[in-house]
């Protein structure tokens, strides 16, 4: 008690003697560990170096939170390379960052010069420049404030959006990565065309829209059912358009920030008793949340399968593409409407909608819904309307022109009235039967006439090679270059053995160099693919369309007699196993790189399972199938091979098991049952390998009759999971993160597929700090030849090597 009292007293004194919250023209802030502290002690400003970087930056962070969370960086674009600079106020009254030799490294620009300027760190975390005497803390009296130049964090009270008078646009820009605060490509800003809304951007492409503000919340945001932590508001008047929030309880710290590594916007709150940040919300939260997943007029419904459905009265633009879950082209009206012809058009109401992209929209606050409808009807490009504000009976008007983009069902959604041919709305409303009686024969005649014209047109067009379809076909061919066999022979020096990169599951891989110098990897497929040339080509085209930064890019293919070759981008760093299981290389993979690899693989797999148009189950995920690019980013290879070899099933039961011992899920290895959950199993094994740096079937625990799963499970049960951690990681690790990864790994390798999480949950678990369920016993605790090795006869298995893909024809 006494000691506590004395330390408190000491703390108090040292604060009084050193802590100040202002810089004046006489008193600057040198880079010697001095800081500014806001008067209530919540924020601190000083010099820091992020991560392992040695660059110096000036930042603001929460003073009382041990894990320094930098909420603002002054010179994010202008790092200082030495530690002898200082922050001061110059003669012109601007805040400047002075280098040791007197050059100005960074400065602020205030338009008006102060007589006696000071820079002060306020209790809100705002750094302001103002007249010394004017301490009203009124926003208008600030000559400059850091809240006008946000970085990646939105603090309570900050405004995100436009000052229309000065043209100032405040937006968030993510750090490039955890040790480089310079502006990245991931940003968050207000869009003010028509009905304003908040948009997350990937470079110049929209990544996620909030949907417009409807008086209560954003129409695309989830409904928060618990006690609200924060109060949100969107201000929209002639002077300003911005979003802001405040904490309901001032003593609770809650902030929103964006992270480019994860492409997520997160809201977190500090939990003092647990000394940790807790994740409250993140965006995008599901597959429907990324921008426009279903194309124009496609409605994304997260609980439906598939998730994309056409709006009522619409049909897929291309049924063929829609069927293979390629939704990009979206939907078109089943019947065109006729504008300004009485009773020839109307509206169908879609309830619970996140309102469409407001880029081409127009809004009015005072109109009623009836006026809104009339306004829409009188303009032939108007395609939909809705209330601006849903409070009470609803008020205001928004109308849209052109295609309706980025629609989804949302808890906070509202009624959207979509323009439609009158026959459709009549059919829906079930009146005007008489009109239908007259319309039907007319319509039939029209349809027959149209069909005849179409057939005639098609015949003509097909004759003269200019039809759209032919063009499309050629484009498709262009997308996937067919390489000449001679070119590849030449590039690989006639498949010479010194060009061999390795042996993959389905054939040998060679390195090649094209005439233009481009390096490629060539997979020469073994001849036993049961597929014809045309099917093979189709599969390759499908794979080439799968593009994700964590998948190896398919550049093309080559078919020559029985030879089938796949051409990939070349990865200079080869595969993960070469790093992980090599004692000299494994040190290059510190924990942050390993986490990045784990996360990247999870992203790639999520794309294959849920987000790509095809839903691909990899079936042979393993360390040697993870390639690393020059920055050690992981890229999954060999995806789609199982499809090419085994056929087109997406889920079910196969007689041919393609996979690798040690990575195969029990139900797959024994019964040939595969699903996305068998991939999750392999992912779990891989995760444990990455954490431990040991092969799944390593000698390390084999003498105890275990594989890695058995070993990890034993350690888990004995409550010593840290023994699994690769010793060469040393102190690069964050223990809690690594233990969390082991925990997730064990959840992925549980015996029963239904217990295993799917990749969406895995991503969530990796990126949040929420509590995880306890894992149940994994499948295959022991070496598995003893289980399947005997029962499968007459297959080519080479059990002497660990890393060979086996293809077992199941004996049933
Ligand atoms: C400044 O950097 C030098 C080496 O670059 C280091 O020796 C010194 O301790 C640093 N000083 C401070 C105050 O951090
Ligand atoms: C001061 O140092 C910086 C590098 O730290 C250099 O770019 C600049 O030219 C120097 N200026 C003078 C006046 O020496
Ligand atoms: C300050 O203003 C001047 C002139 O308006 C401009 O050239 C300069 O780029 C500005 N500097 C910063 C850091 O915004
Ligand atoms: C982004 O998230 C990753 C993974 O959680 C983390 O390692 C990284 O530090 C974060 N980046 C920034 C700039 O906070
Ligand atoms: C950001 O965009 C630039 C230019 O468009 C691109 O070169 C860079 O690779 C992008 N970075 C990331 C992390 O996406
Ligand atoms: C961001 O855009 C770049 C291209 O500009 C793309 O390569 C990348 O995959 C995008 N990232 C996400 C997460 O969508
Ligand atoms: C605010 O939060 C603190 C700490 O959690 C609590 O003690 C206090 O009662 C809360 N105040 C209100 C008004 O809810
Ligand atoms: C703090 O952690 C404990 C144990 O992990 C948990 O039961 C409790 O719910 C956490 N408190 C909060 C506010 O999250
Ligand atoms: C319809 O709306 C568009 C977009 O606002 C506008 O350009 C056009 O002039 C309008 N047409 C009529 C007839 O009002």
UniProtKB/TrEMBL annotation:
This is Receptor-like serine/threonine-protein kinase. GO terms for molecular function: ATP binding; protein serine kinase activity; protein serine/threonine kinase activity. Residues 20-142 form the Bulb-type lectin domain. It comes from Lupinus angustifolius. ATP binds at residue 523. Residues 284-320 form the EGF-like domain. SMART domains: B_lectin (SM00108), PAN_AP (SM00473), S_TKc (SM00220). Belongs to the protein kinase superfamily. Ser/Thr protein kinase family. Its EC number is 2.7.11.1.
